[in-house]
Amino acid sequence: MPDAPGQVSRALRVAPPDQLAEAADRAIRAELKASRTEVFIADYRFSGLWPVLDPELPDAGFLSCHGVAQRCFSSQQPVLDGGEDGRCRIYLPLSVWGERLGVLLIELSDSPDAATVDQARDIAGELAMALRAADRETDRYRRARRRERLSMAAEMQWDLLPGRSVTHGAFLLAGQLEPAYSVGGDHFDWSVDGDRLTVTVLDGTGSGLAASLLTAVTVNAMRNARRSGGSLVEQAELASDTIYYQHRGSRHVATLLLELDTRHGVVRAVDAGSPHVMRLRGGTVSRVPLEQQLPLGMFAETRYDVQEVTVEPGDRLFVVSDGVYAAQPDGRESYGERAMARAMRSTRLQPATEAVGTVMRELHAYHADADLRDDAVVVCLDWRGSSSVADGRAQ
């Protein structure tokens, strides 16, 4: 059989950015003798997977394959589905460095052998990389992700995100924003650089476009310091000074900055406000005690101190904004008192990418599925062990 991944790779390289699904379809049909392909894209809430090639796919046809596609997306493993007509459909995850984009469907005339499944998996990897690269050049895939119109603030927030998940030998990291289509100031950011993972969670004040603009300034100030080699303290202080000299203390941003040393399992933290760190160790959820300092931008020339926390292999850390733990729909008891811990315990057997969705779904259920009154961020970090140990296990 010809080198299918190579053929598809060449087709994707020459295709216009908005025509990747069609280019992949032609190449896969030719090289794997497929009778059909489809690219499914996950929406902003991860509530469904939506077709790109045939967006007008009838509901019956869409729903008949949606459960299998969702199983592939959740497990991040190929799923084979045989039909009564003798054909076999291979569902393959579209993922880049742990960032879950969607699912590729390839329909064949009969059951594939292991070598064909491996080739199909390589093809999915090539397509996922191309889709991620093309996302800045076309709106097509972003349109597929949205089930309703985004507010202007939400449009800015989603564009500012680094992604929604990333994997590494030592950790798996995932995050989610809600309300997905109208989020204002809450946000998260991260960067992997050698043996260092930097994570920030922002609990932005205000609402709407003003909150989103404030968050954008804060995130980019921290990125500027980080990309210039600045320490965690320098990131916090540059962002704080930038906000203060823009707003003279009238606006500020509660922020938690974390830096994980992936070789030694040490987390350095600057707690500048309200986001909380919760640790799931075994079956116990507890809050990680950090000394809270002033929010960024409250006063001029504010100086910050770093604290250290050690994590153990198997630890799961949740970082949540006050829109999660302090939620009080209809004046009831705060969500974080009991319900949040219960939701976090229920994720023990789920990867971080599924855990953030579980906590958010429980939060929506606590609100009786009404729109959230406040922005909410959940970031989940699964610590597998030091990168040197993890690399040894992978060999």
Inertia-based shape:
globular
Q: Indicate the mean pLDDT.
A: 90
Based on CA atoms alone, the radius of gyration comes out at 22 Å
What is the CATH first-level class name of the largest domain?
Alpha Beta
Helix/sheet category? alpha+beta
Tally of discrete structural domains? 2
CATH topology of the largest domain: Phosphatase 2c, domain 1
Which descriptors would you attach to this protein?
395 residues, Phosphatase 2c, domain 1, five-stranded antiparallel beta sheet, 12 helices
Task: Produce the secondary structure layout.
Blueprint: H1 4-14, H2 20-32, E1 36-42, E2 49-51, H3 59-75, E3 79-82, E4 88-96, E5 99-108, H4 114-134, H5 140-145, H6 152-160, E6 165-167, E7 171-178, E8 187-193, E9 196-204, H7 208-227, H8 232-247, E10 253-261, E11 266-272, E12 276-281, E13 284-287, E14 307-310, E15 316-320, H9 322-325, H10 339-345, H11 352-366, E16 376-383, H12 387-394
Antiparallel strand pairs: 1-2, 1-5, 3-4, 4-5, 6-7, 7-16, 8-9, 9-10, 10-11, 11-14, 12-13, 12-15, 15-16
Helix pairs in contact: 1-2, 1-4, 2-4, 6-7, 7-8, 10-11
